[in-house]
Structure formats: structure tokens, C-alpha cells
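Q: Here's a chain of 172 amino acids. Please give me its 3D structure as C-alpha cells.
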Amino acid sequence: MFKTVVTLFRGSVAAAGEELEDQTALLILDQQMRDAAAAVERSKRTLALAIAQDQQEGRKLETTNARIADLETRAVAALDGGREDLAKDAAEAIAGLEADRDAAMTARALFATEIARLKRHVANAQARITELDRGRRIARASEAVRSLRRSGIEAARPYESTLPEAEGTLRR
């Protein structure tokens, strides 16, 4: 007997838990979707930052390439003018700039990979949120229908007539 009461109690708790989950499912879904939308917005900001940094690195690369070209021209002019000391200084500066250029090119390649990954992630997340929103609208409509069936079109307050009563009156 005690085992039966415990089993009954456990079953009641499980049923109450399921009922609570069912009753709050749309509320939970709404919050989960808000959380997901906020995460997508953070991803979009991260993507925008990566794009801005890539563009900044691109401008830096262009400037570095222009400085290298200018120094090469000056080094050749220095050699032509017999100023090997100036040509040597220019060559050292060019070597440093080429290291900067190579680092900028590596950074841009990394940014390109990261930007492509983030774009895919954001697009995928937006598609999933759109699908969840569609499902949520369907779930809300289904819940409204279930609620209507539970309370019933047929169920009326004691002082109100029901559809079957009205149809019976019409038949008479």
C-alpha cells in the first residue's frame, strides 16, 4: 500500500511538472528566442568590428606598400648618386617595412577567414531564428485552438445559452 501511495505521489509530481512545462512552454520559448536574438546581435557587432579591422589593416598595407615603393626609388637614386650610406639606410628601412607588410597580409588573411566564418554563423542563426519564430506563431495558434476547445465554444456561463440549445430552439 505504501509503495502504491509513493508511486501515486511520484506520478502526480511528474504530471504536475509536465503540466507546468506545457503551460509555460511559450513563455520559455519567447525568452529563449530573445536570448538567441541578443546573441545574434552580438555576433553582428563582432562581424562589423572584424570588417572594420580588416579595412584598417588594408589601409595600413596600402600605406606600407607606398612607403616601400618610395624608399626603393630613393635607394636607387642614392646608389646612382654614389651615396651607398643612404642606400643602405633605405634598404634597412625597406626590410622593416616588408616585415610589416607581411604581417599585415597575414592579418588580412586571418580576418578574411574569420569574416567568412562569422557571416555564415550570422546567416545560419538568422535563418534558425526565423524558423523558430514561424514555429512559435504556429504553437501560439495551436495553443489558442486547444484553449478554445478546453474552455469550449459549447461551454457557457450558467446564464448564457449554448449553441446546442440555440439549435434546439430553432428546430422547435
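Q: Can you summarize the key feature?
A: The mean pLDDT is 86.
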